[in-house]
Amino acid sequence: NKQVLLANRPHGWVHESDFNIVETDVPAIKDGEVLVKNLYLSLDPYMRGRMNEGKSYAASAQINDVMVGGTVGVVVESKNPAFQVDDNVLGYFGWQLYGISDGKGLQKINVTDQIPASTYLGALGMPGLTAWVGLISIGQPKAGETVVVSAASGAVGSVVGQLAKARGCRVVGIAGGKAKCEYVVKELGFDSCVDYKAGHLVEDLTAATPDGIDVYFENVGGEILEAVLDRLNAHARIPLCGFVSQYNATQPHAVRNFGALLINRVKLQGFIVGEHSDLFPQAFQELGQLVSSGKLKYRETIAEGIDDAPRAFIGMLKGENQGKQLVKLA
Ligand code: NDP
Q1: Nearest-CA residue for atom 35 of ligand 1
Q2: Residue among 137, 219, 248 to mutate when testing ligand 1 (max atoms within 8 A of CB)
Q3: Which of 244, 322, 326 most suits a substitution to test ligand 1, by most atoms within 8 Å of the C-beta?
Q4: N or C: which end of the chain has fewer CB within 10 A?
Q5: Is residue 282 a part of any domain in this protein?
Q6: pLDDT value at residue 11
Q7: Are residues 179 and 318 both part of a single domain?
Q8: pTM
Q9: CB-based contacts of 304: which residues, under 8 Å, 6+ apart?
């Protein structure tokens, strides 16, 4: 087996030296257990938080722990009657080539030509469910309203915008760079996309949202949040999903115009997708239909091999990914 361990707690930006790659034996499985060969590892922004010490919604990783993460794989040995060799499974084995499970939390997945295994880590997986839960249950978009989403070309943002479009909203993305913005409009079908790196965020966002903003799906925080707060309509809703611009910051960005929430009687709700599993069947049904019919577009950036996982993770936090960031393990 090969594993990526947490070697140091980064202060500020993550470096490849904060990880340690080790080779270990694959232990023999006991009665009731299955051995899974992981095919893909998901790299997600929340993993940066696990590298820190301190209060969060989930426990920190300890030094020398295997980095956590969602995986899809194939059962290669089974002493558990619920799983057969060759079953495709979604698990949470982390940054390693093989994982052992007693079956709890391990989910069989149906891999087809239209639904490749990797989509269970992206559009049909945790990021897709996050988009659905935040937008539909908290954002409650109505036809004709303006929905803005940041990190718009990413795993979560790309699904948010397409779900909002399907509900008849005017959809505006915010993304870094011309290429990402072009993709968001031309491929994903958003009405408009603001390139926050172009140097005139406030002007461009104002031009793209002539009727103000009714729903802001927040993925990044910082200056983008400030620009959006100035464009909110009365009774706007903000599903607060992530703050990726702040995860490596040593000085937190102080938001100057929080009063906009009061003036506009805004509903802002932070959420963690895992606490909304009651909504997963409904979300999964819609997302599954959209993915298998080809209506929901998505992109993947796939790093080759576990040795490349640290570099790919840092790249994703810097915006080098196009859509869902994965690592191909086998
Ligand atoms: P993405 O695929 O969107 O990748 C991260 C993206 O963040 C980068 O591609 C980059 O896009 C953008 N980014 C990085 N730094 C900045 C910055 N300083 N300012 C603006 N954008 C930046 O990741 P995900 O879709 O997986 O995650 C998106 C957000 O959703 C994250 O904040 C994540 O923590 C959150 N999340 C929350 C969950 C929950 O349960 N609450 C569950 C899953 C995700 P660009 O090039 O456009 O800058």
Answers
A1: 242
A2: 219
A3: 244
A4: C
A5: no
A6: 95
A7: no
A8: 0.98
A9: 327, 328
Residue 244 CA to ligand 1 centre (angstroms): 5
Is the domain of 39 the same as that of 138? no
Contacts of 116 (CB under 8 A, 6+ apart): none
Mean pLDDT of 33-39: 98
Q: Is residue 142 part of a domain?
A: yes
- Residue 287 resides in a domain: no
Q: The domain that contains 71 carries what CATH number?
A: 3.90.180.10
Residue 27 has pLDDT above 90, yes or no: no
131 and 254, same structural domain?
yes
In a domain, 193, yes or no: yes
Question: Ligand 1: which residue has its CA nearest to atom 4?
Answer: 154
| pLDDT (mean) for 48-61 | 93
Same domain, 145 and 111: no
